[in-house]
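Supplementary Note 2. Why include the ligand at all?

Several targets in our set were suspected to adopt different conformations when bound, so apo predictions alone were not considered sufficient. For every target with a known small-molecule partner we therefore ran a joint prediction. The input for adenosine-5'-diphosphate is given below.
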Amino acid sequence: MTAEVIVDIAHSEVDKIFEYRAVDGVEEGSRVRVPFGRQTVDGYVMRLKERSEYGDDRLKSIQSVIDRALTRETLALARRISERYRCPMALTLRLFLPSEMRRGEVREAFINVAVPGDPDFVPSSRAKAQAAALDYVRESGRAPYTALCERFGASAVRALVEKGALRVEQEKVNRSPLAGAPASGQARQLTPAQERAVESISRSDKTVQLLHGVTGSGKTEIYLTLIARTLQEGKSALFLVPEISLTPQMLLQLRARFGSAAAILHSGLSAGEKFDEWHRLRTGEAKIAIGARSAVFAPVEKLGVIILDEEHDGSYSSETNPRYDTGEIAKWRAEYNGCKLILGSATPSVESYLKATEGEYNLVELPERINQNPLPEMIVADMRREVRRGNNTPFSAALREELESCLQSGNQAILFLNRRGFAQSVVCRDCGHVVKCEQCDVSLTYHSEENCLKCHFCGASYHMLSACPECGGVHLSYTGTGTQKVVGELKKLFPAARILRMDVDTTGGKEGHYKILKKFADREADILVGTQMIAKGHDFPSVTLVGILDADMSLHFSDYRSGERTFQLVTQVSGRSGRAKEKGKVVLQTYDPDNYILRFAMDYDYKGFFRHEIGMRKATSFPPFARIVRVMVTAEEEGKALDVLKPVWFSLQELYAQNREKFLFFNKMKSPVKRIQNRYRYQVLMRLTDDTLLPQIYERALREKTRDVLVYVEENPANLS
Ligand code: ADP
Ligand code: ZN
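The joint prediction is reproduced in token form.
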């Protein structure tokens, strides 16, 4: 037999199939060691065939088989992704394996356990410790070796092993994330509305189901019911959430319902945990994979349902190569397995909702909250008026009042502000200079806790300045409020309140998100201040007040989706309020209270928003009625970037000349952020009527990349900076 192998070297020149003579145990999907040039490398068996065109005896032989890491579906999926995004196969396959495993850095973990040996052995009467240890093991059947030594003394245990009274065996341990956390939640009787939704999904013959349910309408319970049915049919499930911060609570709910059948995959796990969870899924011991974006590559077979919660979320599109769209890959997997893909959201993307109204997706709607709980009352605070009154704190009078009564009644509040740190930027009042990152073309954010300046693009940190680096002036002012400042101001206003902050700076470390959320859920704090990571998905029954500190912030981005994003954000954050018995309130602070997007959000009018937005997109020819494509060229030396931009531009111009009718826009320019992490950034920006030219654009752009100059293609990028 001949094996077609992809070697694990991410270099475009070796991006092809190599043939090897197969040895015993080699299957399609095997990970193998093969000779390659003068070295030995890892490879993946993509296909087995009877004989090579070159003659089998001329081929080198596979050296050894590591494991069978890839499923049949993985192979098919990898081919499709590699083709679609023009990504070398070796790189594409890496999506499917935990990186530590690929590099051989983690293995299965074992512990030694002692089990009873010779049943006729009788310890001597003087060896009391030996007798006690032996009794203990005989009674319990098996005991971890180290624990036994700690309890009865190492010499006694060793003596028993030497005499054959005890045997030592190896036992595999599962390193399991959140092992100690209590899993809670039992199956509930579905409400009639939930029942109808489940029925509609089950009866539908469409692959994609759009579950549009207002916040607190009980979508999670529907997901759990669908998963339970899937498991009953002997199949498995994939459950995707947009952010790592949402995985712990979901995992715990799944564990409460389905026990160890649930496994979690995300980048925040330890290498050992990742390895074990991945293997539990690969072997079929675990049947439900849950995680953020990258879990769409989970090695589960026989999928019965795929759930993509908060489907509108921007984090579902990857920002590293290959720049895949999670929804697209989830849909391929659903088609491959003949199962359904459930897209869930209170604020579906206009793309998805359009497809649902046009009949491509089955539309399932839950217009009411569980138990007809009302949606929270909206209080609008006009910040222009606050400023005129001389209030320059981040809180309007209305918000202060509501916070006070919320705290007094013993409930909890969430304050949302999508900006971390203390102040957005530091400006010299003498010369107007804005302090910028040395590696990026962006202003630095002041962080008060560490008293330093940080770059939110590259993470670089700088000492705080005492004078302007341009003019030497000492009058530096801080503009733009961040979460740290909000917490500081809150403490002044409500000295007795217990405050938690949740943003990128407070959630580092293992299970960092979980610790903060758990504290808040356990009522160890009264107010949670946070960025978009607190905006969605969470279900805290005691929260009766949500404050949106700067509702307009995301409106000001020059991006065709800024209106949609603002609507989603305001709706999602508001949805955290009043989810249980008590009625909730939202204070929405804005400098633009008449803005139509905010108006739709205040009225919880998704359909009104959709009609308006889709009409505008159509009139201006923006997605979903067009496709935005950006070709990025980046390099550390500006000259080199320009050297590559030129042929990219010429080649694309040729395409443009031949297909003018497909281009709505075509231009090259510096990117809005000219430099990030020391790399100069140039772009060719296009707006196209459809997708037919995509393969050619990828082809023409990517073939120009060099060792020093990165070239990549983004489709409808979530971020145009
Ligand atoms: P969504 O995901 O739609 O925002 P959730 O699934 O979090 O909403 O449900 C909102 C609240 O309603 C949760 O506290 C949940 O426990 C509760 N809930 C959901 N379904 C039921 C049901 N059938 N009976 C009683 N309570 C329910
Ligand atoms: Zn930077």
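The chain has five domains: 2-102, 109-173, 192-366, 377-420+482-617, 627-715. Residues 638-658 form the longest helix (21 residues). Comparable summaries for the other entries are listed in the accompanying table.
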